[in-house]
Write a structure and sequence with these properties.
about 325 residues; Rossmann fold; Tumour Suppressor Smad4; 2 domains; four-stranded parallel sheet; 10 helices; about 30% helix; binds adenosine-5'-triphosphate; EC 2.7.1.107; YegS/DAGK_C; nucleotide-binding; Lipid_Phosphate_FormReg; Diacylglycerol kinase
Length: about 325
Amino acid sequence: MTIHSPKPDSKSDATASRASAVARRASGIHVILNESAGTAKAVGSLLEDWSRNGLVTFHRPDTAEAAVAMSRRAADAGADVVVAAGGDGTVNCVVQGLLAAKRSCPLGVLPLGTGNDFCRNAGIPLDPAAALDLIQIRVAKPVDVIRVSTESECFHYINMATAGNTGLYADLVTDDMKKFWGPMVYLRGAVDVLSNLKTYRVQLQFDDESPDTYDVLNLFFANGCVTGGGMTIAPDAQLDNGYIDVVVVLDCSPVDIAALATQYALSDYRSNPNILFRRVQSVAVRSSPPLAISADGDILTDQPTRFSVLPGMLQVIVGA
Ligand SMILES: Nc1ncnc2c1ncn2[C@@H]1O[C@H](COP(=O)(O)OP(=O)(O)OP(=O)(O)O)[C@@H](O)[C@H]1O
């Protein structure tokens, strides 16, 4: 008996292979590239190679809002990983997009920014090629997300928010300065801020405690411990412990500030009386004058705000 195999249908084969190519593109590694981030241009040819070799699919938004929308769409379309290629601002854009998506999808990060503080906290290699190797292994872990809510708006971040005198950074540290100073820009910004310190009268309510009022130079709401291009501000903060580490720098004299800076340089400032450390699940903040609150360099709000932790809310490809 002769068995006849069906005649190959070249048209339907072509359609099937096109469909599988589209499916491959919809899944896989989707990179949201912020071409204006610190070192994105410097690694341009490496990125072109990855794209040509089919290792990644690139999206090139030209605004932060477009980066949020493209991240959400890539996740909803079936991406295996959506990668923020840029600095901490880009990471936050992709986080907003992934949290708004209907389908859960892990975050990866290619560190192409100036400070890359989230990568430092998450053990992600600062060398982009090594970071891509890590992403390709695709082992994600749950990481906490911090929700910042005002009466009218809501934002999320995964590294650190600051408020007070460092909140002035975002105005002072321009993109041109970042290009000129590189990672040193954060130190340069600190010098400008230190010469012009403001005091804020701030009411803080930690968890369900009754509110207390403090005179404050600065506040940090930390998920990760490092900010400002590698400065350890909240030494005990962990990305996945279900808590926000709040660090309050109380108003004090220039001599006390100098003592604090020296202790900081010696990594010995936990016992300084002008610093208050609290580990909480939520904190409500009101201030006079209004505090500019920024997350990783981008100003979020100057309204009364509540920070709350969303434990393990996002899967993230982190390093060792
Ligand atoms: N696709 C985009 N196009 C233009 N701007 C973007 C895009 N995505 C994000 N941004 C904004 O660009 C600014 C700088 O980006 P980002 O923070 O990623 O780089 P960086 O400042 O060099 O690095 P870092 O914050 O780690 O120091 C941020 O304000 C961010 O919101």
